Amino acid sequence: MLEKVYAAAFLGVDATVITIEVNIDQGVGYHLVGLPDNAVKESNFRIHAALKNNQFHFPGKKITINMAPADMRKEGTAYDVSLAVGVLAASKQVNANKLQDFIVMGELSLDGSLQPIKGVLPIAIEAKKQGFKGIVLPEENAKEAALIDGFEVYGLKNIVEVIDFLAGNREFQPLVFDTQKYLDEIDNQFSFDFTDVKGQESVKRALEIAASGGHNILLIGPPGSGKTMLAKRLPSILPSMTLNEAIETTKIHSVAGNTKNKEGLILERPFRAPHHTVSDVALVGGGQYPQPGEISLAHNGVLFLDELPEFKRSVLEVMRQPLEDREVTISRAKFTITYPSSFMLIASMNPSPSGDFINDENKIQSSSLEVKKYLNKISGPLLDRIDLHIEVTPVPFDKLSNEIPAESSKSIKKRVQKARDIQVKRFEKDTIHYNAQMDVKHIKLHCKLHQETKELLKKAMESLNLSARAYDRILKVARTIADLEQSKDVKSHHIAEAIQYRSLDREHWI
Ligand SMILES: Nc1ncnc2c1ncn2[C@@H]1O[C@H](COP(=O)(O)OP(=O)(O)OP(=O)(O)O)[C@@H](O)[C@H]1O
Ligand SMILES: [Mg+2]
């Protein structure tokens, strides 16, 4: 007899519904077709044991299973439950009435209990889109799927419960989750807050500007000056994620299997800090069974590259394209996957190989050749995409020991949000959303300068010997500074401040 069960497979971060046909006939043998990987093929051992241990039996007949569409890879252990249910229904051990209305997935333990699977959120999104009534999943995955409203989610413990549900032997309650209430509750709850950072007013100001305009930023300072501490707090002042952004980010983490122990939706903007020994694949994604890399896990959040010059040049090179396109494409012979990767880059470095500023007379100095070599490691394409460079000097002890709390992230974020709202409006009819994304055409249109402001910029460029590439960066950052002040025009003092954030373009560095 032939039975059909519905499940889902992945391409990138999106799921596609697949049909599993189970046919049982006279004869012997077990044939699983439709591009299953080894983990799927091995499922019959788990299913065998799980059924036996729960008073069912694995039919000693000819079992043929087809997973359609046949040209799509089916990977992992998530189809155990779908296959087991199909076998039970096709061998008439159970009457699974509801099978046609639900997606049924999960990994099976040998005792028949259900183990969590990856990618539940994209599966639920697709299942709802395809008109399924709901989804049957391991208990641990239910919260994530329940983020999708108007869709029944049943989180169950073991194969017996799954069968009881599908046959209608017992009543189960679907999990209901109030997504909006959750969004309201969690807003502004961040693990790190700027209130802990003493002093560093100018660095905090630069981070506020960076957050407002979505500008990439480089922190330059000696060890212990607080670079890591400051960078970790950047997500706390970024504008709140919209529900759409939260779902986009959660989908990526769901596919990477990072959401298992969390409360479903990811609402905090991600902060990813890969070590400088990270490989190309771990950074941008890929691998034999493609997985999103750090730049995609940082989607809608922050990617922190601590000790930037320590990263291999080749690793930094592979980031160029995604930084520009805000997505990364992985090509294989048979398919191409695109993962989104729109993140804010924050990088840190020491001012010289010895760790100290070169104009600090009290410290051992690196020779200018050593400094040149050190800076060369990061120069070029990546540096070209960083709008702000800021020097971080250690805070003196009396300020560090000051008990008065500094301004909170929540209060800084209010200003950031206001500046961002202006940009959203500015680019309403455009394809971009914030100032950092402006190209030459946008800059011409939105960063018009009065004659005297133009003169000031020209003079500053000459006297500070700023490079040509600094020019556009200064205009973009000045636009954001003007937005923070709710000023329609970019004025001289906005330009003057923006010029301060180009440390690496100044003569004394090279
Ligand atoms: N402004 C500050 N306010 C409060 N604590 C600070 C401040 N600056 C530094 N600290 C303390 O010093 C510690 C070291 O700072 P952090 O690790 O951020 O420095 P770093 O610049 O990243 O150093 P490295 O170059 O060695 O990585 C912090 O964990 C924090 O406890
Ligand atoms: Mg550090």
Describe the structure.
This protein is an alpha/beta fold. The chain folds into three domains: 2-167, Ribosomal Protein S5, domain 2 (2-Layer Sandwich), CATH 3.30.230; 194-414, P-loop containing nucleotide triphosphate hydrolases (Rossmann fold), CATH 3.40.50.300; 438-510, Helicase, Ruva Protein, domain 3 (Orthogonal Bundle), CATH 1.10.8. 36% of the residues lie in helices and 17% in strands. The protein has 21 helices and 18 strands. It has helices at 38-41, 43-52, 80-90, 120-129, 142-145, 159-167, 179-186, 201-213, 227-232, 243-255, 280-284, 294-297, 313-317, 320-325, 368-376, 397-400, 409-426, 440-446, 451-463, 468-484, 492-500; strands at 2-11, 14-25, 29-33, 62-68, 102-104, 107-108, 114-115, 134-138, 152-156, 217-220, 271-272, 285-286, 291-292, 302-305, 327-331, 336-340, 344-349, 388-391. The protein has a five-stranded parallel beta sheet with strand order 11-14-17-10-18. It has a four-stranded mixed beta sheet with strand order 1-2-4-3. A three-stranded parallel beta sheet has the order 5-8-9, sandwiched between helices. Strand 8, helix 5 (142-145) and strand 9 (152-156) form a beta-alpha-beta unit. Helix 8 (201-213) runs parallel beside helix 17 (409-426). The longest helix is centred in the last third of the chain and has 18 residues, at 409-426. The protein starts with a strand and ends in a 10-residue tail after the last helix. The mean pLDDT is 87. Bound molecules: adenosine-5'-triphosphate and magnesium ion.
